[in-house]
Design a protein that fits this description.
The structure holds two protein chains of two kinds. Chain A contains two helices and 29 strands. Chain A is mainly beta. Chain A folds into two domains: about 110 residues, no CATH class; about 290 residues, no CATH class. The radius of gyration of chain A is 27 Å and the shape is elongated. The chains are: A mainly beta, B alpha+beta.
Chain lengths: ~425, ~120
């Protein structure tokens, strides 16, 4: 009698376990199917952001992709310095997938050059171990060799390994649209915390509103701190950044920025007056140092300047821009052994020192080189400019005149 | 056993005809209910065919994106007929709405898939 009950229980147990297994298999497969659909919707959203310039996404917008249910996507594209940040969020029932990414532009090969030096009716002179690899836009006066500091030109006999074109009297212009967005950043009266003292680590998602820190007129030093993501630091005076600060993808805008020796990170720095980087600093791609001046120069002219200390490396963009030209044009000063992988765009001058390497392009109004006694104008001495050394995957911001029309994902920032 | 006497007066244990009938009716009811549930489950459950069709559609989608394919067409892969419909998405030049539908041999729809793809001819 009992054996019958036991057998019945065992059979019942087996049957129910089979049913439960089938049930979970079905649930999991439906989940996988849902996630496949979510993945398609998510990538559809990313493609929509990459294809258009629709400004209605700047504050976030939820759309139905195909108007047939289970296809809602929330899209957002925000200004993030040289680049844009896109966010795509899609959901079905309680399942959500999202991706945040930075958007950049491919290089327009028809405008790309290792060197663009405006025509001031003065030739370019090469001396020492200088190498120019890639197409160049130079003054009509041409390119020649020179004897400087007891050294003759020791480079390739062709002088330029690439095609030579005549440059214009002005540099190709920066994008007005992007400059207008920068102007909004610089003019806005940002409200936010004025203290960073109580924070030692902050990671703000790009899905959330930007976290502003506004230091007003108080000089701020960042040290022993980790800041990452959707964080913007603003100051009406100077911000000092110590080598112990870890900055990742954030934006800093101040009147003056000073980076102390040994710093390394990934950051976009914009200043009104000066950016000074000490020696042995490393800025990872995509970083940016930019001088932006939209207001008229004061009675006492101050020269805006970006200085990159000896043996520092920057992967990204260095540029200067002033809306109203002053007597003292903005200057980019690159120290000895500096390496730039990307682009240098100087509306004013570019002061160079020995062993400078630029893997990418230089657009400038003039070159300056100073030894102990003489200041040389448009002399390239011990410089390597190699546009072909830049990765074919390099992407630029649409501010730059060489930006193409095709937008691509520069970096995946967050994903689920 | 051989040679033992059979007591024909003893009563053998058995069920009445009513009990047997009730048991049979119960068995039939339970069995038919179980079969209905089983049929229902098998009808709505995942078929290998559907899973395969989805995999095929994913591959077709990847190829369409890779080959920058913007032509609506119908073709056969394995045992499936795939209908590929591509149209412009919101009149944005580089965006296309691709809708793939898989049909079996009986021309019954198995599954479909839709995505906005980016095709630039730069």
């Amino acid at each position: 009698m009992y054996i019958v009950i036991v057998i019945a229980l065992v059979i019942g147990l087996l049957c129910s376990s089979l049913i439960v297994a089938a049930f979970f298999y079905r649930i999991e497969y439906q989940k996988k199917f849902r996630y496949d659909q979510l993945d398609n919707n998510l990538n559809s959203g990313i493609n929509i952001l990459l294809a258009g310039n629709d400004t209605s996404y700047s504050s976030g917008r939820t759309i139905s992709l195909f108007n047939n249910g289970a296809d809602s996507v929330t899209l957002k594209r925000i200004f993030w310095g040289m680049y844009d940040i896109g966010t795509s969020v899609t959901f079905i029932q309680k399942d959500t997938l999202y991706k945040t990414f930075s958007i950049a532009y491919n290089i327009d090969s028809t405008k790309w050059a290792a060197l663009y030096l405006i025509d001031e009716e003065r030739p370019v002179s090469l001396s020492g171990k200088t190498a120019i690899i890639g197409d160049v836009y130079i003054p009509k006066a041409g390119i020649t060799t020179a004897y400087v500091d007891n050294k003759a030109y020791q480079g390739d006999k062709r002088l330029v390994i690439g095609k030579k074109y005549n440059s214009n009297k002005t540099l190709p212009l920066l994008s007005e649209n992007r400059l207008a967005q920068f102007q909004q950043l610089t003019n806005a009266n940002h409200s936010g915390d004025s203290l960073l003292n109580h924070i030692d680590s902050l990671k703000q998602s790009f899905l959330l509103p930007a976290k502003y820190f506004s230091f007003k007129k108080k000089i701020q030093t960042l040290s022993n701190i980790k800041l990452s993501g959707n964080v913007i630091l603003v100051s009406d005076t100077v911000i000092n950044i110590d080598s112990t600060a870890s900055l990742n993808n954030i934006i800093v805008y101040a009147k003056g920025i000073h980076i102390k020796s040994g710093f390394h990170g990934n950051v976009q720095l914009f200043a009104k007056d000066s950016i000074s980087v000490d020696s042995n600093c490393r800025f990872n791609y995509p970083s940016c140092l930019g001088l932006l001046r939209f207001d008229k120069p004061g009675i006492v002219a101050v020269q805006e300047k970006i200085h990159l200390g000896n043996r520092s490396t920057l992967s990204g963009i260095i540029f200067t821009y002033e809306k109203n030209e002053s007597i003292l044009k903005p200057m980019i000063d690159l120290g000895k052994g500096v390496k730039v992988i990307g682009q240098v765009y100087s509306q004013g001058g570019l002061r160079t020192k020995d062993s400078l390497e630029i893997d990418g392009s230089v657009f400038t109004s003039q070159f300056l080189y100073q030894n102990s006694v003489t200041l040389f104008q448009n002399y390239l001495i011990n410089i390597t400019m190699n546009s072909k050394a830049l990765s074919s995957y390099y992407l630029t911001g649409d501010l730059m005149p060489v930006a193409g029309k095709k937008k691509k994902v520069l970096q995946w920032l967050e994903a689920k | 056993m051989a040679g033992s006497k059979v007591n024909i007066k003893a009563k053998a244990k058995a069920s009445t005809i009513l009990e047997v009938l009730i048991a049979m009716v119960l068995i039939v009811v339970v069995f038919s209910t179980a079969m209905m549930i089983f049929a229902n489950v098998t009808h709505s459950s995942l078929s290998v065919k559907k899973i395969r069709a989805q995999a095929v559609l994913h591959e077709v989608l990847l190829n369409a994106e890779k080959n920058r394919d913007t032509v609506s067409q119908s073709f056969n892969i394995d045992d499936f007929r795939i209908e590929q419909e591509i149209k412009s998405y919101n009149n944005v030049s580089q965006l296309f709405d691709i809708h793939l539908t898989a049909y079996d041999n009986n021309q019954q729809k198995i599954t479909d898939l839709e995505k906005v793809i980016l095709i630039s001819h730069e």
